[in-house]
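BUG: 3D viewer hangs when loading the predicted structure for this chain

Environment: internal workstation, default settings.
Expected: structure renders.
Actual: progress bar stalls at 90%.

Input used:
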Amino acid sequence: GALRWSPLTQITPSNVDDLEVAWIHRSGDWHGFDGGIAPTSFQNTPIVVDDTLYYCTPRNRVVALDPETGEERWVYDPVVDISKLYITNCRGVSHWLDEAAPAGTACRSRIITGTLDARLIALDATTGEPCAGFGEGGAIDLAHGIGDIEPGEYGVTSAPAIANGRIITGSMVLDNRRVDSPGGVVRAFDARTGELAWAWDPIVPVEADTASTGAGETLYQRGTTNAWTTLSVDPELGLVYVPTGNTSPDHFGGHRDGLDHFSSSIVALDIASGEVRWHFQTVHHDIWDYDLPSQPTLFDFPRDGETIPAIVQPSKMGHLFVLDRRTGEPLFPIEERPVPQEGHVPEEYLSPTQPFPTKPPSLHPDSFGPDDAFGFALFDKAACRNLIEELDHGPIFTPPSTRGVTMYPGMLGGMNWGSAAVDPESAFLVVNLHRIATKVRLIPRAELVEQYGDKIPEYGIEPQAGTPYALERVPIFSPLGAPCNEPPWGELVGVDLAKGEIAWRTTLGTSRDMAPWPFWFETGTPTLGGPLTTASGLVFIGATTDFFLRAFDLGTGEKLWQQRLPTSAHATPMTYRLREDGRQFVVIAAGGHGILGTPPGDALMAFALPE
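Structure tokens produced before the viewer hung:
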């Protein structure tokens, strides 16, 4: 349900300043830029089942630890070839208990993990051995039926959803590569045997015998929207909630012709059959990469003395969509408002309107132009203003063009995969916000060839093969290396969902560890990772490019504590307590992020009050 909330109360606002390092585990699974391979990013949030903590490393090894000491119990290595991967991370593993199996039976308790090379693996939670009765030797080949896959183009980076005896997973598909990228089919498998239960194609499926490639049969439509982030489930309603990405590629859609019907949407599927019960689209004909990277959160919405089963979906636009999770009906009005219709390339078409929630208000500014330019010095600000003036600019949903456009929110949002935390007792939401403007420019194919020949740069230029345009997509930075939009560049925001109102905002992060000078400012930073809340009224979060784990007061947003880490922590923290007389631990993965320029690492760190 993605609450990211704990009922634990041992650590409180009054004693959180006493937290100390309890243990550190290092897997050794990390690398920097190595032969063109992107650095690892340790984005994992562990789980604790019974008396064991489980996590996965960026190279897909699964590790089992003693949660109170950090002592290693077992390690499973699926042996993933990372030599041609662009993304090297694993955000989590899942757990399933086979209640029909007798106690002590092998694989009664299972850890389920997906891999970067598109396998779904079941492990005995006690020993780490593959479950022989699951798939073939404990694994399922998720590439089956997908067709041609280029190296590193298709895999799983988020923990699968498990409910009612089903393992349900989407997939990571690399952005902006080609029109006929691997399809975004969502599939459910029997948790005991691994047998395929159903497959949901985000468009009418292609018959199995209509297409074939050297890599095997293509059973599913190519180029469809995918679901790369974590799914949420409501077992009682029998629904799995799928937040979808973009139809390939992200920034040009002139060829789609209805293929993006389910793009940038919350899709409620029947857990038993895979049939669509309802879907709500947050962006029509999305050509801005404003997909839904956040796991939707299930909570009880209070209204007129009653509670409504609700779902809240954060988006890259800074919008929070609050819906009845039974039907998809909005719980606050959502307006279809006119959006810019000029400036797009001739082969493109636009939606005349886009949906805007009336409550809560947008958490992110919705326009950006030369008058909004920022700089630490006059020359810096003037350079930023010139950069912005050279591009198309205007309100949100200004379309991509060959001149280039300022996209704000930028390519990371707004809100990203860290998702929101919701206190179920008060329906109070906390989410971190990223505020960096992006330049997006469509490059005519002839210009691309003239400028780069056969060798496209690895950073900033993306091919969008099969369309008339390649893509340039980079943050808009000043000569001093700072974002050209005003701070804060990262925020933590508290929202009263019952009222639909913003309760507080606080700057999240400093220029430390990124700025080339020894003076550090409360500017906020790009944030990837998410918050955790507790019943004692605390918010824990890393997510920033400076190397800290912080704690805030849930009611006010006041910072109460921070702890220095070996590198940045682009993961969501978790907390647990094994016994009534035991200590409450808070655990965070500190592993850096190559795209954000922070050094890679492998430290899983646990904090607790002194014994």
